[in-house]
Amino acid sequence: MERKLVIRQFYKEKIRTDFEYNICETFQEKFEIGCVIFTPEDTFKDEAINIQEFAIKALKEEVPAGILNAFKRHIWYAKRAASEIRVFKISINKVISFAICIHGYVDDGWDNSGDFIEIYDEQGELMGSKILGEEDWEKWRWIDRPILSNDFHSFAPPWLEEGIL
Description:
Layout: H1 2-18, E1 32-37, H2 51-58, H3 65-78, E2 83-92, E3 95-104, E4 106-107, E5 110-111, E6 115-121, E7 126-132
Antiparallel strand pairs: 1-2, 2-3, 3-6, 4-5, 6-7
Helix pairs in contact: 2-3
């Protein structure tokens, strides 16, 4: 439990002090281990992609199954609700953590405005997630579930493979 609190506190403070416009830009590039960006031109195309292969190719290193599954889920959503997704690997007091940051695409007619983060420990266990917005930092609360399709501002159908509806 203490490990979870340490990880959560690190990310809360990092976001509180460094978040400005795009959650993906809050963390240093040197910690980035994966990235995909889907613009409106990329979304809703009928082309079938193998999400497993696509996710593995987008990662610079192997990650625990829980993180790979979360990354695949967000690729599924971003393919339908244009977004930028970045995966970071950060050591916090010698404890490895992972953050999946999602920044929704906003442009003429596209409003997936939003910034989202899911944080994981070194085994790939979810430590918490957060939908970012105007925040009273004293009342900050982590969500104890992953970000789901209905959390996005644009339509993203549920990812049935994850089994979390």
